[in-house]
TrEMBL record:
<feature type="transmembrane region" description="Helical">
    <location>
        <begin position="210"/>
        <end position="232"/>
    </location>
</feature>
<dbReference type="GO" id="GO:0005886">
    <property type="term" value="C:plasma membrane"/>
</dbReference>
<feature type="transmembrane region" description="Helical">
    <location>
        <begin position="140"/>
        <end position="162"/>
    </location>
</feature>
<dbReference type="GO" id="GO:0005345">
    <property type="term" value="F:purine nucleobase transmembrane transporter activity"/>
</dbReference>
<feature type="transmembrane region" description="Helical">
    <location>
        <begin position="182"/>
        <end position="203"/>
    </location>
</feature>
<dbReference type="InterPro" id="IPR006043">
    <property type="entry name" value="NCS2"/>
</dbReference>
<keyword id="KW-0812">Transmembrane</keyword>
<feature type="transmembrane region" description="Helical">
    <location>
        <begin position="55"/>
        <end position="80"/>
    </location>
</feature>
<feature type="transmembrane region" description="Helical">
    <location>
        <begin position="410"/>
        <end position="436"/>
    </location>
</feature>
<keyword id="KW-1133">Transmembrane helix</keyword>
<feature type="transmembrane region" description="Helical">
    <location>
        <begin position="375"/>
        <end position="398"/>
    </location>
</feature>
<feature type="transmembrane region" description="Helical">
    <location>
        <begin position="275"/>
        <end position="297"/>
    </location>
</feature>
<keyword id="KW-0813">Transport</keyword>
<comment type="similarity">
    <text>Belongs to the nucleobase:cation symporter-2 (NCS2) (TC 2.A.40) family. Azg-like subfamily.</text>
</comment>
<keyword id="KW-0472">Membrane</keyword>
<feature type="transmembrane region" description="Helical">
    <location>
        <begin position="25"/>
        <end position="48"/>
    </location>
</feature>
<feature type="transmembrane region" description="Helical">
    <location>
        <begin position="317"/>
        <end position="339"/>
    </location>
</feature>
């Protein structure tokens, strides 16, 4: 009896979902490699608060592993979880460094948020929020996330860069050559673009694992360029070596202790107004980031039913809630579902077995951190750009002849990349959908919960 017909098929219903262990494995490793950057970035961001960087790395890997396994067990979906980008920056730079709270207090706010999430998931409130969003907006969320993660990929590759005059602009090879910066940054832009081209060719030729092969191809080119001197790492510019560093010997394979940050929950300021504002901000952003990711990725994977509902969503939301609570105890910021899960879905991942493989790689990363930390952002950028293209296809399901549907969808789509936030895209979409339909006499299209959501989003902009 093959593995597919054995326990794995029984647990994850592989045959029923038209997938195999091999497909799920390729999807899992693809998802992991596109989000492995969190292992390097999260410690850098959170350590600005004074937290121990090594302990944060361990907490990040374990919280990601736990949350992703829970997603597999509770919902059987191919979605991966990890400490969310944006939320970790809010934790470190706003709550701790700007507002002056200790990182222990910030962790307690995340912990309380997680407890509230658990209650909301048990009472079906979060599921009701998901179901209340019209199908048009769900398709728009999928397309918007596509543009959003494509923009992330372009930034990671530095194809698109910050510019004081125009806010963002295309990378300048002329300026790079003139400043002598080409061998540090310019060459990685070239490698990323080659990675996009290589992945696109593999896709057209229907090569299995094309996104993963694109990542490996770009990384290997980076290694060759570093060995030959074409790529010169410069940590000051956040351009690091792409060759795994094993110089620490056995210590390189030993996870750091979480003792400095584990269980450091502080409820001293829990009854203050500022604490409530911080906790609510975490809560609000995480709810709609998670809902947006679930909507977008599940739409891409054709997991929504005829009514636009996601089966087993309660389990998915519960996994997110428990992971957030446990992550706070471990010592990391809010754990949430990652949009990079779309890369694994694009590789054919359809069940929780994909998530299990992602979780195993996070666990393995504790002992092979030099390897995983060497995966450069410019190597995973092609995957994000290509997946952005695949998710943008959802836009064809929007009825553009009906302006009460298409204008809110349009605002949802453009707000995600332009505001650099999934939750802001949902906010723009919900508010505009309610107002446009209300003021044009189409009140029957608006559910009570959509009215409530619109009011909450408006209040967020006024008070937070």
């Amino acid at each position: 009896m093959t593995a597919e017909k054995g326990i794995l098929n029984h647990l994850f219903h592989l045959h029923e979902n038209g997938t195999t262990v091999k497909t799920e494995f390729l999807a899992g490793i693809t998802t992991f490699m596109t989000m492995a950057y969190i292992l390097a970035v999260n410690p850098i961001i959170l350590s600005a608060t004074g937290m121990d960087k090594g302990a944060i790395l361990t907490a990040t890997a374990l919280a990601s592993c736990l949350g992703t396994v829970l997603m597999a067990l509770f919902a059987n979906y191919p979605f991966a979880l990890a400490p969310g980008m944006g939320l970790n920056a809010f934790f470190a730079y706003t709550v701790v460094l700007q507002m002056g709270y200790s990182w222990e207090t910030a962790l307690s706010a995340v912990f309380v948020e997680g407890i509230i999430f658990i209650v909301l998931s048990l009472t079906n409130i979060r599921e009701a929020l998901f179901n209340a969003i019209p199908m048009t907006l769900k398709k728009a969320v999928s397309a918007g996330i596509g543009l959003f993660i494509a923009l992330i990929g372009l930034f990671n590759a530095q194809v698109v860069v910050a510019n004081a005059a125009t806010k963002i602009s295309l990378f300048s090879f002329k300026e790079s050559l003139r400043s002598g910066n080409f061998h540090t940054v310019g060459i990685t832009v070239v490698l990323s673009l080659l990675g996009v081209l290589f992945t696109a060719i593999l896709m057209q030729r229907k090569v299995r694992g094309n996104i993963l092969w694109g990542i490996l191809f770009t990384w290997i080119l980076g290694v060759i360029c570093e060995l030959t001197g074409l790529y010169v790492p410069d940590p000051a510019q956040h351009m690091f070596s792409v060759i795994p560093n094993f110089s620490a010997g056995a210590a390189a394979f030993t996870p750091s202790s979480m003792a400095p940050i584990f269980g450091k929950i502080d409820f001293t300021n829990m009854l203050t107004l500022d604490f409530f504002v911080v906790m609510f901000a975490f809560l609000f952003v995480d709810i709609f980031d998670t809902l947006g990711t679930l909507i977008g990725v599940s739409s891409k994977a054709d997991m929504l039913d005829a009514d636009g509902k996601l089966p087993r969503i309660k389990g998915a939301l519960m996994a997110d809630a428990v992971a957030t609570t446990a992550g706070a105890v471990m010592g990391t910021s809010t754990v949430t579902t990652f949009v990079e899960s779309a890369t694994g879905v694009s590789e054919g991942g359809k069940t929780g077995l994909t998530a299990v493989f992602v979780a195993l790689f996070f666990l393995l990363s504790l002992f092979l951190s030099p390897v995983f930390l060497a995966i450069p952002a410019f190597a995973t950028a092609p995957a994000l750009i290509i997946v952005g293209f695949l998710m943008l296809g959802a836009i064809t399901g929007i009825e553009f002849n009906d302006l009460t549907e298409s204008i809110p969808a349009y605002l949802t789509i453009i707000a995600m990349p332009f505001c650099y936030s999934v939750s802001e895209g949902i906010s723009f979409g919900v508010i505009s959908y309610v107002l446009i339909n209300l003021l044009t006499g189409k009140r029957e299209k608006i559910s009570i919960l959509m009215y409530v959501l619109a009011v909450l989003f408006i209040c967020k902009y006024i008070f937070i």
